[in-house]
Specification:
- By secondary structure, the chain is an alpha/beta fold.
- It has 13 helices and ten strands.
- The protein has helices at residues 5-8, 14-23, 35-47, 58-64, 66-82, 99-107, 122-138, 167-177, 208-217, 233-241, 254-261, 272-288, 295-318, and strands spanning 27-31, 52-57, 89-96, 112-115, 142-147, 152-154, 157-159, 181-184, 222-225, 265-270.
- The strands form two sheets. Strands 1-2-3-4-5-8-9-10 form an eight-stranded parallel β-barrel, surrounded by ten helices.
- It is globular.
- The two termini are 30 Å apart.
- The structure holds glyceraldehyde-3-phosphate, 1,3-dihydroxyacetonephosphate and zinc ion.
- Residues 95, 157, 190, 226-227, 269 line the site of zinc ion.
């Protein structure tokens, strides 16, 4: 083992989820790929006293370098300490697709991993997830599995066909694999184009009936929601006002996420909203100040706006503010 997450000051998600379940809120899982995103996540979670899951995809590892990402997470922990804050921080692999990737992340200090076998047949998903759990639990690292396929195409996370989680499969999956949490598919999808609706039509409700069925079959078990960005209109409008061309975007309405956070959903994944905020603010600076060429002058405003957005999620959507 190159590094134990405990020595780094990270925690796994077990205690976080237990508290979230009892307190009827969800822990935010925010993706990061660069310094400004990480700074904003940590600042927002310190200021709103929220537990946080720092989430890294395999694409993020390729983009930012796995060694650097680990040290960035360690730096974030020092900042938490320096601020006199005690918020629990987990470092989590998002959408791990192989056993080897999960092992590599655990060896480099991750406290939690997702093994996403949701695109595979049930038996293969079970076998892969079980293998990851056996390795991870030896190191007290928590594991998230997935049943059901989310729609949407986003870099490496792409599924042409989506299907909702079958509640009748969840007990067998959890029992056979030993996973600590389960991502389910109830109508969310990755990216900025989650629902197709005609003008004037309301967005469809998430399938809370499936969530309830899952809760009945797995009482007290932690559920995860992927694809949970709300795609706020204010940022889409800013992007388009300043030269962008995003059309017919749609996200998960905040009241539905609030409702989910009060249920067995203990972890809510948000990436796209951060991307929209950064793009909107950078476009705004580029348009209003075309002579600007210092990256701090456009990444800085993007970071400030990110802090605002993450605090809003913690305080008004996930309910995690004040829980750490
Ligand atoms: O669910 C996917 C996350 O938004 C990560 O996306 O693979 O483009 O880093 P990525
Ligand atoms: P969004 O694309 O809705 O932000 O979902 C992110 C996610 O599920 C990361 O795993
Ligand atoms: Zn996801």
């Amino acid at each position: 083992m190159a590094a134990s997450y405990k020595e780094l000051g990270l925690v796994n998600t077990r205690e976080m989820f237990k508290k979230a379940m009892a307190g009827k809120y969800a822990v935010p899982a925010y993706n990061f790929n660069n310094m400004e995103q990480l700074q904003a996540i940590i600042t927002a979670c310190i200021e709103s006293k929220s537990p946080v899951i720092l989430q890294v995809s395999s694409g993020a590892r390729k983009y930012a370098n796995q060694i650097l990402l680990k040290h960035m997470a360690m730096g974030a922990l020092e900042i938490v300490k320096d601020a006199g804050s005690k918020i629990p921080v987990a470092l989590h692999l998002d959408h791990g697709d192989t056993y080897e990737l999960c092992v590599s992340c655990i060896e480099s200090g991750f406290s939690s991993v997702m093994i996403d076998g949701s695109g595979k047949p049930f038996a293969e998903n079970v076998a892969l997830t079980k293998k990851v759990v056996e390795y991870a639990h030896k190191h007290d690292v928590t594991v998230e599995g997935e049943l059901g396929v989310l729609a949407g195409i986003e870099d490496d996370v792409s599924h042409e066909k989506s299907h909702y989680t079958h509640p009748e499969e969840v007990q067998e999956f959890v029992k056979k694999t030993g996973v600590d949490s389960l991502a389910i598919s109830i109508g969310t999808s990755h990216g900025a184009y989650k629902f197709k609706v005609a003008p004037g039509e309301d967005l469809p409700e998430l399938r809370f009936d499936i969530l309830e069925e899952v809760e009945k079959r797995l009482p007290g078990f932690s559920i995860v929601l992927h694809g949970s960005s709300s795609v706020p209109k204010e940022y889409v409008d800013l992007i388009n006002k300043y030269g962008g061309k995003l059309e017919q975007t749609a996200g998960v309405p905040e009241d539905q996420l609030r409702k989910a956070a009060q249920s067995a959903v203990c972890k809510i994944n948000i990436d796209t909203d951060g991307r929209l905020v950064v793009t909107a603010k950078i476009r705004e600076v580029f348009t209003n100040s075309p002579k600007e060429f210092d990256p701090r002058k456009y990444l800085g405003p993007a970071r400030t706006e990110l802090v605002k957005m993450y605090k809003h999620k913690n305080e008004h959507v996930l309910g995690s503010a004040g829980k750490a």
